[in-house]
Amino acid sequence: MSPVDLFAWSDGDLVKAKVTQCALARICGACGQSLGRPVAFVGTAAEVGRNAFHAPPLHTTCADDVRRALDDSWEVVQTGGFEFVRPGRDDEDRRPTFQPNSLL
Prior knowledge:
Elements: E1 9-10, E2 13-14, H1 16-25, E3 39-43, H2 45-50, H3 60-70, E4 75-79, E5 82-85, E6 97-100
Antiparallel strand pairs: 1-2, 3-4, 5-6
């Protein structure tokens, strides 16, 4: 699976509309299919540390493929649920985040 094959990415970059679609429709950012539980997120060590991810939710089976396709240094976190948090007016980072609420 290459970044071109991923539902919410285009040429290795996240597509904002697809990220939002993944959040609202509870679909996988890699394959575009409905999500069950657990859900996985991939992110940098900084994202894992603050428990806020920019990449959309994934099936656990898709998460390793995404990590390898984008960058092997990304980490995988599994959760039972998440919140989709849109940036506030004064937030420096204008990208929405996914915040896992029950880490596994």
